[in-house]
Design goal:
Layout: E1 3-9, H1 16-27, E2 30-33, H2 34-43, H3 47-56, H4 64-81, E3 87-90, H5 96-108, E4 111-120, H6 123-131, E5 133-136, E6 142-144, E7 161-162, H7 169-183, H8 185-192, E8 196-200, H9 205-219
Parallel strand pairs: 1-3, 1-4, 2-3, 4-8
Antiparallel strand pairs: 5-6, 5-7
Length: 222
């Protein structure tokens, strides 16, 4: 039996990572976080990691060929070792070419059908939200400087809160420009297939969580 795929789309900073995790926990689904996977590879110091860092530190999308290769290997391993009842994709695909490649990858490793939850938020709110974000360099916990302005991580008590290069305001704006040019066409791609439901994340997490769960129930295979 194939494993359904639910893709989370939306500009950086719209909350799709948070809500993908919340939905995965609530629905008992698997969560595939491409951003975390790429950052792990980038930190590895491997040739692939160095190549990734060159793009990510400038807020540029990583080339399709490299992303597809990484995703294919990771999904194949996930399905083989720990197949979930459904799989939420967070951060992939980001271009139509990647979406087309995903269809081929899914068919080869018994994944599918594919549906999409699109999360929206105005650009200026996104820039503000991401620029105020700080990440623990040890445990990876994320905090908003408007809520916690200390330097030491209050979660693990040993890491330091830092601003990632790709979270700086000028880089975020470039990321949004990249998104509009290369990722937004995915809305049309999946919309034409009738596989897309949109949610606005301009509300408290609890409210948006219910909106996302409602969208998930709506797109479940009948």
């Amino acid at each position: 039996m194939s494993i359904p795929i639910i893709i989370f789309l939306g500009p950086p900073g719209c909350g799709k990572g948070t809500h993908a995790k919340l939905l995965a926990e609530r629905a008992g689904a698997g969560h595939f976080d491409l951003g975390s996977l790429l950052r792990g590879i980038a930190k590895s110091g491997s040739p692939r990691g160095v190549e990734l860092t060159g793009f990510m530190s400038k807020g540029l999308l990583v080339p399709d060929t490299l992303i597809i290769e990484i995703v294919r290997d990771a999904l194949s391993e996930r399905v083989k070792t720990n197949p979930p009842p459904a799989l939420l994709l967070d951060g992939f695909p980001r271009t139509v070419a990647q979406a087309e490649a995903l269809e081929k990858v899914a068919a080869s490793i018994e994944l599918g059908p594919v549906s999409v939850i699109n999360i929206n938020l105005p650009n200026e709110l996104i820039v503000e939200r991401i620029a105020n974000r700080r990440v623990c360099n040890k445990c990876g916990a994320i905090f908003d400087v408007l809520e916690f302005s200390g330097k030491e991580c209050p979660k693990c008590k040993s890491g330091q809160l830092i601003q990632r290069d790709d979270d700086k305001a000028e880089v975020v704006r470039r990321r949004l420009e990249e998104y509009a040019a290369k990722t937004a066409p995915l809305l049309q791609f999946y919309g034409k297939k009738g596989k897309l439901v949109s949610v606005v994340s301009d509300a408290p997490v609890e409210v948006v969580r219910e909106r996302v769960y409602g969208a998930y129930k709506q797109i479940q295979p009948k």
